[in-house]
Amino acid sequence: MADSAPEVAEVERVEEADVIDQKASRLADQIRGSKHFIAFTGAGVSTSAGKFEPSARDPAINQL
């Protein structure tokens, strides 16, 4: 997986709260209507959400 990760992360998008609410509602409807649901999570998923969980791409981690 590390070999396929981009060297430079894409610029993160910032959206208004009402847009996020609409998208979350639409996603929740799709999940409720689905027969199966799989969520992929892992290291670094929460870093862009403002929670500091060091990512494998974090230069400080790679220097250890």
Q: Could you report the average pLDDT, rounded to the nearest whole number?
A: 77
Rg, please?
16 Å
Structural class: mainly alpha
List the helices and strands in order: HH
> In which range does the helix fraction lie?
25-40%
Strand content: under 5%
Number of helical stretches of at least 4 residues: 2
What's a concise summary of this model?
The protein has helices at residues 17-33, 59-62.
What are the key terms here?
mainly alpha, 64 residues, 2 helices, 33% helix
Description:
This protein has two helices and no strands. The radius of gyration is 16 Å and the shape is flat. The chain has helices at residues 17-33, 59-62. The mean pLDDT is 77. The protein has 64 residues and is mainly α.
Layout of SSEs?
Elements: H1 17-33, H2 59-62
